[in-house]
Amino acid sequence: MKLKSILGISLTVWFLLLLAGEAKRPLRKSTEPKTPRVARNAVIAALSGVLLQLTEVPLTAWLSRRVEKRRLGLLNQAPMPSILRAIASIALLDYTLYLWHVISHKIPLLWRFHVVHHIDLDLDASTALRFHFGEMAISVLWRLMQIRLLGINPPHLLAWQNFLMFCILFHHSNVRLPIATETSLNRFLVTPRMHGIHHSVIEEETNSNWSSGLTIWDKLHGTFRPFSEDSSVVIGVPAYQRESETTLEAMIKLPFEEQKQVWQYDGAAQIAHEA
Ligand SMILES: [Zn+2]
Fold first, then answer.
1. What separation in Å is there between the alpha carbon of 177 and the centre of ligand 1?
2. Does the pLDDT value for residue 271 go beyond 60?
3. Fewer CB within 10 Å: N-end or C-end of the chain?
């Protein structure tokens, strides 16, 4: 069996295990009924998935082959043992994704799209796949820059993409891990309680815990916010608390409409979390 098929099956099994864990030991109480929410997130994910198959997959494969063949980019400038190159590639891709995540909150044009991921009123493994196709389209340009400037060769790109998928499914999941286990894992990896804080309705909390894979980037930049055992975070964005604002149609249209003051509660809104 081909390596890519094995990785695909492993990711599917991981997703199903997380769904089972969420059902058995949920971390946070749900605000919306789970099945229609997951179905909506799956449609958003499918639209982005088609776009990425048509753009990111062929473009990054072509560019990383070219980078390897012509020895382009930072990591191809000096000979180094292959294990060191692999570790450096994954770490630098992970760090530059940290930077992308920060600017996707700070630049208004990018935030219009990234906010679709954040207005989910609950957080679980399906949220990990719920990114607006517009955000994915723009992120292809960042991905190409990462590969070209860092000098990422095809096997390391594949390794990082799969590491990232395992990580983002995990840290968005609503699985309640024993606190000691999560604290140990969190020394190195982003975990569900840690990433939950980034999805908080409190602006200062959202402006922390930006890392996607390794926690070191938040620690180095002073943006790491520790979690508590109860994880009593309210998930979402204050201005988008109505369930009517998280329908499939509303989510697809949101980036193209006039934007609300996201960190202020809309006075007329029924606060879904208090309903
Ligand atoms: Zn974010």
1. 22
2. no
3. N
> Could you tell me the distance, in angstroms and rounded to a whole number, from the CA of residue 268 to the centre of ligand 1?
26
Total residues found in the chain within this entry: 275
Q: What is the pTM (predicted TM-score) of this model? A: 0.92
How many angstroms separate the alpha carbon of residue 212 from the centre of ligand 1? 10
The model's pLDDT over 67-83, given as tens digits with 9 standing for 90+, comes to 999 999 999 998 899 99
Angstrom distance (rounded) from CA 167 to CA 153: 21
Domain positions in the chain are: 33-274
The C-alpha atoms of residue 176 and residue 74 are separated, in whole angstroms, by 40
What's the gap in Å between 77 CA and the centre of ligand 1? 33
Q: Please compute, for residue 130, the number of CA atoms within 13 A of its CA located in the half-sphere on the CB side.
A: 27
How many A from CA of 19 to the centre of ligand 1? 22
Residue type for position 254: L
Instruction: Give yes or no for a contact between 30 and 122, defined as CB atoms under 8 angstroms apart.
Output: yes
Residue 198 CA to ligand 1 center (angstroms) comes to 7
What band does 273 get if pLDDT is binned at 50, 70 and 90?
Answer: low
The count of other CB atoms within 10 Å of the CB of residue 222 is: 7
